[in-house]
Amino acid sequence: MRAPYPPKPTPFGKDLRPWWGLDPELTYLNHGTVGACPLPVLAAQEQLRRRIQGNPARWLLRELSDLGSPDSPPLLRQAAAQVARHLGSLGQDLVFVDNATTGVNAALRSAELRPGDEVLITDLGYGSVTLAARRICKERGADLRIAHLPVPLHSGLQALEALEAAFGPKTRLLITDHVTSETALVLPVKDISALAHRRGIQVIVDGAHAPGSFALNIPALGADWYAANLHKWAFAPLGCAILWVDPRWQARTEHPIASWGEERSFQLRFDWVGTKDPTPFLCAPEGFRFLEALGSEATWRYTSELAWSSAQQLTQRWGLPFLSERSLVGPMVSVPLPKALGQEAPDAKRLQGQLQRQGIEVPIKALAGQLWARLSLAPYCDAEDVSRFADAVESSV
Ligand SMILES: Cc1ncc(COP(=O)(O)O)c(C=O)c1O
């Protein structure tokens, strides 16, 4: 039996919050960090876990993947096909991985890199991804170059110009965020991919925050590999992400862990990487079902409007400019904080700790000589959460 969903019209904000297991005392403005899974999705996962335990060998060895030659399509392929419909993709072009980090690692090891080639990443790239790129460059004798993206970024065009200026004659691979972790801004990855491809540069997109944040058609973006979490904004259980691969590169795309699928198909190299709990992957469609029950369009309108209006109000309140275009803002927004709070990483850590002690979860970052709060405006957040955060910031000055 499927768990019930919130009523229509969706009561966004605090009335929606009981559909999550979040501590009622918390002001939770940190959905983007590791997500938060809605209770109906967790209930579906628990039900599936129990079903699997009724005959673990049957479900894991025979029904899950093509390793077991099941009569009907393997469960993971069925789940991939359902997820793919929400991402504009075909199920066969998409595999599950535990998280975006694993997806980017797989893409990196599958890109064609020779000694002397250059890999370009931006200085806003996520730390673990930059470290993974550094490792692959070391292994292949390639060079890693860091392109500077302006902060604050005013427009998508500015990002394109910065990347174009950073491409060199030896650049073979670009790793770009779709939504950057530090600034929360949505980059024009379709135009970035086209720009790179005109120079024969392959593109890996780190879309960790994108699925479920806004309408997304991965193949239309024109990247070569696209890795993304479903356990953030697509409401899947923790440990659920995808890697989409352009059909041209699937034969050479490998999971970082070799297992029984090694000499078989692209899909099987990812569908079986040893014994593990498959329920985060199998419940990914349930996460999208929850988003659809809220109304995806209505959710995106609510969350991005709340992010945008919060940025306007807070910066006006603190007499600071907010310089990024509306089109760069999704459900997360990084807001500059009053100068009096400091400008370096230790100041950010101190303020974040102070807010945590007051029951407010929000990442504070030091970037370009000032502090920023990255607010995640999930569908269960509202203006009251933002106002509580602002009052706490002012009391810390
Ligand atoms: C831009 C970006 N890339 C990659 C990641 C890594 O995600 P995960 O820890 O799920 O692999 C994050 C995490 O927040 C991120 O913000």
Q: Which geometry do the CA atoms define?
A: globular
Q: What small-molecule ligands were found?
A: pyridoxal-5'-phosphate
Residue share in β-strands: 5-15%
Strand order of the largest sheet: 2-8-7-6-5-3-4
The count of β-strands is 12
Task: Report the CATH C-level class of the largest domain.
Answer: Alpha Beta
Instruction: Provide mean pLDDT, rounded.
Output: 97
H/I helix tally: 15
Name given to the CATH homologous superfamily of the largest domain? Type I PLP-dependent aspartate aminotransferase-like (Major domain)
Give structural notes.
The structure is a single chain. The protein is an alpha/beta fold and 397 residues long. It folds into two domains: 13-36 and 295-396, Aspartate Aminotransferase, domain 1; 50-289, 3-Layer(aba) Sandwich (Aspartate Aminotransferase, domain 2), CATH 3.40.640. 40% of the residues lie in helices and 14% in strands. The chain contains 15 helices and twelve strands. The protein has a seven-stranded mixed β-sheet, sandwiched between helices. Strands 9-12-11 form a three-stranded antiparallel β-sheet. A two-stranded parallel sheet has the order 1-10. Helix 2 (39-54) packs across helix 3 and helix 7 (156-166) packs parallel to helix 8. It is globular, with a radius of gyration of 21 Å. The chain starts with 26 loop residues before the first strand and ends with a helix. The mean pLDDT is 97. Bound molecules: pyridoxal-5'-phosphate. Pyridoxal-5'-phosphate binds at residues 33, 99-101, 126, 128-129, 177, 181, 206, 208-209, 229.
